[in-house]
Amino acid sequence: MATARTPRHRVLVVGAGFGGLAVARSLRRTDVDVILVDQHNFHTFQPLLYQVATAGLSAEDVAHQIRGIVRSHGNVRFRMGTVTDFDLDERLIRLDDGNVLPYDSLVLAAGAVYGDYGIPGVLEHAFMLKSLHEAVDLRSHVLRQFEAAALDPTALDGGRLTFAIAGAGPTGVEMAGAFVELFEVVRKDYPELEGVEPRVVLIEPTSAVLPPYTPASRAYAERILRRRGVEVRLDTGVARVEPEWIELTGGERLATHTLVWAAGVRAHPLTERLGVPLGPGARVPVTEHLHLPDRPEVFVIGDAAGVSGNEPRPHPQVAQVAIQMGKHAGRVIQDRLRGAASAPFRYRDRGQMAIIGRSAGVAELSKRLGGGRFGGFPGWLAWLFVHLIYLPGHQNRVSAMATWIYNFFTFDRHARLVLDRRERAAAAVRVGAAARAANSPRPPSTASDDALEADGGNESREPVLR
Is 124 annotated in the active site? Predict the structure, then answer.
């Protein structure tokens, strides 16, 4: 079923992440119809997913309903659905429910997924952090390791309480620091594990943590991590991943049931459906105005956008780039409707920041903002302040700030809940198989779990539209 075209210019935005929402906001007072399409009905604040995975925040703190975000934008409508294909000649997108949506302008803001670099076992066994479901699954998995170790302390030699992180960029560093703080709390819950020290191993193939940062910030972050008990393995990569061990590039096998993959990303697989040549990381080369060279009505922004114009390399895959690209795409559409020329896109770098844990962070301003750098407690506070500003929804901001204050003064992490959908889905399959083998009626209590498994039992391994 196709939706009829309207008299007004119709803008389809695929993906309700930072870039997609920026497009919608930039066009909210323009005489166009904006349709925002995403497979979930909520926007996820991805920079804080690691805090959900380490019980620092609840899932609801980092997600906000999309319809609530665009409610005040009179010309913006939301459509929940999964995009499966594009017809660029007919100017249509196809959804998984069989419907098609026409457009006059299309903005692809689908984001990125983690890339495995061809390393065996990564997609099957590692944990990713690109969706809310993945963060909740990782948190549940980590807590299950403590439950299992408490029942059978002899299993500790098998790496049950060894937690490895691949990639020492901002996500990996923040994850390592948060793991240490979480384990300080969790150990008090398990008197059976008295004297047992969980291991956090941070694996980085280059010679420093936080590679894009200044030498002073890199040295500070590594020093704090080691001081807090993180085993930092530099000049070391992951060669193979199995359920209960990983092989490092030097041939060493590290026994662990948990590998968090923060080693790199690639553009969303939807870029492959555009039928155009792709650049490194499956990113789409675009013009200086962020559209396809031979299709000015098709824009690609954010993590999916490759080299733009005559720039030598793609922009970093961070939220600020997506936001600025979204605003620029909106301005180009506005200029076209007025018959005006548009200025080329120029990314205005504001700097970068990361935290290593309680009262420890690094913040670096870009040269255009003075090039200052500060770390320690001021860097930590700056990180909290910036993330509160960009977190959508007043209730989310208040809730996150209250939780951070509570955690800071109590040294507690209250969101220690086991809500692993994959474990429940697997249990439902086992119960169902046993019931069918016995030729007996299906237990009513497992029906919802089967529906859950069909809906998302493997979702953490599928690309998530953001």
Answer: no
